[in-house]
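Supplementary Text 2. Reproducibility record for the structural model of the 254-residue chain.

All settings were left at their defaults, and a single model was retained for analysis rather than an ensemble. We include the record here because the model underlies the residue-level annotations in Supplementary Table 4.
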Amino acid sequence: MDVQDWNVESGSAGTTKGRVPRTGELLPEPSDVFHCAFDLGYNPTYTTELYSHYSLIGKLNVDYVAQQEDKMNFVKYRKYFLNVPASTVAHTFDSTTRYYHFIPSTNRFMTYRSPYPALNVFRRHEIVFTDTVFANVPAWGGVHAAQVFAGKMSQYISVHGCKTDKDFPRCLEDEIRKRGAMDKLASDRAKVETSAKVFDILRTLFIQDWTSEPHFHHQNFAERMIQELKKFTNWVLNWSDAPPEAWYAAFEYY
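Retained model, structure tokens:
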């Protein structure tokens, strides 16, 4: 097969120039087989047999080359592009590299995990409210307080035991490690919950923050969940005849 005669759309030899299916843009002819295989192997829009052969020569993965994108609804993206026509948005996407999980670099090293920390964490797509509960009696294990996290959409409640409220950064990291990074963290403007160390964690994982207004505790959804948590904890302690030191165990049980 003559390298200069090729057809991207049919995958066979011919005189028709290769074009991008969506835009009709002319593609450069593969003058160098090895470089063509390397460069086009990471672009999943080229799925022809000819490029598959090139990828084999370049020792790339044929399955990766054969990947295709899902059809996108460009109308819903118009509001992010000054409400330009959908066709303009489509051309913008075609001209933009948007494969988020692979960050190209000059050294061309293939990594199994992205070097970007925010991509290596499971994402919990909801706003999570948090607040601290203090007890008059230390619980078993030296727990004096509990940090409560409540998801707004899932209404899932999780607690983390701590000795003081200064342990909040550790509790936040444990929450992210076990249940994923939330889209937004909401609190009641406590100093430990808006400290520099907490903001460093939020910046690293690209988590937004929100705080309720002073004297408006009802804006914090965790306050409402804590009411339910205390009610059922007292219920468990009463019918089980457990000592007061078991309050944190009842928190975890709930």
